[in-house]
Amino acid sequence: MFRPRVAELLWNTTRLALGTVVVCGVLGVGGAWLVERSSVPFRRAWHVLLVAPLAVPAFVNSYAWISLLPGLDTYAGALLVVSLSYFPFVYLPVVAAFRGLDPALEETARGLGLSNWAVFLRVQLPQLRVALLGGSLLVALHLLAEFGALQMLRYPTFTTAIYDQYRATFNGPGATMLAGVLVLLCLVLLLAEIRLRGRRGYASTGRGASRPPRPVALGRLTWPALAALGAVVVLALVVPLGSLGYWMVAGASTAFDLGALATTTATTLALAAAAAAATVAMALPTGWLAVRERGRVSTLLERATYLGSSVPGIVVALALVTLSIRATPWLYQTVPVLLAAYAILFLPRAIVTVRAAVEQSPRLYDDVAASLGSTAFDRLRRVTLPLLAPGLGAGAGLVFLAVVTELTATLLLAPTGTTTLATAFWSASSALDYGAAAPYAVVMVLLSAPVTVLLSRDARRGLTT
Amino acid sequence: MSSLTVTALTKAFGTTPVLAGVDVHVPEGSLTALLGPSGCGKTTLLRLIAGFDDPDSGTVTIGDRLVAGPGRGVPARRRGIGFVPQEGGLFPHLTVAANISFGLPRRQRRDGGRVRDLLQVVGLDASLAERSPHQLSGGQQQRVALARALAPEPSVVLLDEPFSSLDATLREDTRQAVAAALTATGATAVLVTHDQAEALSMADQVAVLRGGRLVQLTDPRTLYRHPADLDVATFVGEAVVLDADVRHGRAHSPLGELALDGAAPDGPARVLLRPEQLRLGAPGGGGPQGRVRSVDFYGHDSRVRLDLAGGDTVTARLEGADLPAVGQDVGITVVGPALLFPAEPGTPVPPQVEAWVPAEGSAALA
Known about the structure:
The complex is a heterodimer. Chain A is an all-alpha fold. Helices cover about 80% and strands about 0% of the residues of chain A. Chain A has 19 helices and no strands. Chain B has helices spanning about 40-50, 95-100, 110-120, 140-150, 170-185, 195-200, 220-225, 230-235; strands at about 5-15, 15-25, 30-35, 55-60, 65-70, 70-75, 80-85, 155-160, 190-195, 205-210, 215-220, 240-245, 250-255, 255-260, 265-275, 280, 290-295, 300-310, 315-320, 330-335, 340. In chain B, the strands form 4 sheets. A 6-stranded mixed beta sheet of chain B has the order 7-8-9-3-10-11, sandwiched between helices. In chain B, helix 3 (about 110-120) packs across helix 4 and helix 4 (about 140-150) runs parallel beside helix 5. Chain B is globular. The chains are: A mainly alpha, B alpha+beta.
């Protein structure tokens, strides 16, 4: 009886994934070219504005749109909302790739008589290919894992179907079967990503351009370019923020529970801090081994943690529910299980930064300190930790902010009575109480803003993996 | 300060032998250069002396204290060695002063006078003390690294290609400052280098390593004048190598009849001259002749490549501005005796090594 249902979900998921990848690719590459290579005015400001949608969680974006336009519960609506939330995943790596490209190549091509369009197609695009494919895979993985945004738009995919099954039958075989198909889809994408990552090292390690490239003069196309960038920013940023503002004002007229907001925020911050600390503590040995003790086992160990970013949150949550009920019933619906889910999901973000930090602190410093009579503990305290501190801090920050906006796993695993900003927002907006949901969304957006600034400054840093 | 003795030291990485039984003795207060091409094991030897790696067999003795040997491996931090790595390796999160005082006991770390003294020893201004490492030039970083290594008054200072990342002018200044500081502190020092000029000019004795073995250990002049074999000869300086026939104590070569350094049996042999032993003059007079193939003008001197009638090519080093033109025929006179090496029938004369250009890049992982 599941067969037709699975086929329908597969069709829904696939066509949405393909559509989103295409739209995100066009928006991401187009935006990156305009910001990095054209004479469009206010390029710095546009850059920040094109990264800023990352501060609005997809399910908040979805809420903002559907609360204004209830007719968006269609394929086109889902495509619009999800693409607007995800295109920075393509934009950021492509911008980083553009910055890494040697302008001398483009100048050489122009010297050989190529037009701007031909330079883009024959010189830039081939070099961007890896960044573009990497970003597209990220979009596809996120889409497979997306629950909140699509549930709110009533667009059924595997993830939303799993959730519905779980709610209806609680841990029945139906949810498990659907989760199995979903994991299979993710694994296919993951294999593709691992193959790409193997080659990415060569493509993106180029030293920064020695001098800034001369931007392409847009001439009469300046206004259309500005209009296009403006439209993207309005749709991806102004509409959701405006909608939030509208519901804040509308909701303020009804009774607004400031105390509940404060407690929920405090709970969320505490959970996020604990998860960040636990995740970084786990990332440190893994990242350390991956750099200092390169070998088959340590590489496998490091790669294995990346699975967490490819397996949807709902699958991880479902697995932990099953596991804790069967093996450790006394742990079911407790904070440690929730923290474990966060750690599994967000470990890759911490490992990437920790790894980079370990790479910045070569073994040489250890040797020198040892030759100066320093003991192992002394070296850890005086050399290693101070050198790693910025990386550990950045990793903790990324995990912290990811936890603040995590919805799916929290819905399934949070102990009874524990509400986070995301789940409080979710229960209010599911009850169509848009006004009551708005304040929680606003706090989440405000808390996410710093990471956006961080990412727009350092476009070379990867997003999640 | 103490002497340093290495005996029968071996080390293999996996199945690749890197050191195959090396013996070196470094007398107290002297500077010994470990010279060799990349991959000869010189950096490995340094790391074994420092205690960063453990040898497979053999011993390391500092003073009269066995620090590495059968069943004994004193950790690096207890060996009392000062280590100056290739790029300085200054801790980026610490100031110059904190770097220098890193190895001092806690109470002495705040002693600004000690830091000032050490900065002075390496020829740096005391005002640099509060700078960060990235605010220093490469040469200054190397000097701070030396000051840091000298601060705990180590028994032996180990320098791992400390000048290879510096450009030519800075390298000379830094080299002199480092040599002066080592002399002033009476340090026993081991310098790893692949640059023969550096080894010859700085060291009291040079240990030439090749393929994980010590080929020759002697003072710089002996090394240059009496190299152990042809390979060492061409490695430590530019050379003119020719096949010759020895008869009655004289070598008959394409450059005519050459005097030899010491007695030699009759028969085929290979002779070595240094380019500065060749003088050019007007052709004729029955002496050897050559045709100028190229002239490289360096300012202080010049290098002239000559084609000999027999097909050999030799190099002469000339001082002054009076240079022959390309294509000109010149007469060649040889000053001083030639060095004699066994003939190697069937093997071609080795290419004329251009020894004053370092034979490898600074990024070499020796």
